[in-house]
Amino acid sequence: MARKILIWAIFYAATIVAASSAVLWEIQSYYFALEQPFYAPPAWLFGPVWTILYIFIATIGYRIVMAPQSDVKPILIALWTLQFALNTIWTPSFFGAQNLGVALIYIAALDVTVLITMVLLWSRDRISFWLAAPYMAWIGFATALNAGFLILNG
């Protein structure tokens, strides 16, 4: 039981660190300085949405690691790690480097990684699949938003 709690705590702590790394960048001043696509949501929406999604992401990682050993488990662990890295690197690419093109590449790779993960989860862990569905929807929207910012702001 202590092992499960420790693994759970590691996943949730990692997501908190990744989420809180956004404070390193001048997010609001840069975001509001950009010409906004017509479909850009209000800035206040990002915090609540990402809070929920990070809980889902951590839960998926925990469930993958705690699942019985299988041929696909190492692939799922690698995919979860890759999506987590891509998710984390997007913020400094978009807000820190202010490179909308590079950020778009990262988020497109994130889309593909999460989609592949979902395909593998479908027949193995439906709970994780359904936890990944809103994440996929949001990053799909975020990809369109990133592209819109790139088109409008060059």
UniProtKB/TrEMBL annotation:
Record keywords, A-Z: Membrane, Transmembrane, Transmembrane helix
Native source species: Maritalea myrionectae
Compartments, record wording: Membrane
Lineage top rank: taxon: Bacteria
Key word DNA damage present: no
Ranges that cross the membrane: 45-65, 77-97, 103-122, 129-152
GO cellular component: membrane
GO biological process, one term: tetrapyrrole metabolic process
Name of the protein in its database record: Tryptophan-rich protein TspO
Pfam families: TspO_MBR
Family, per entry: Belongs to the TspO/BZRP family.
Membrane topology: Multi-pass membrane protein
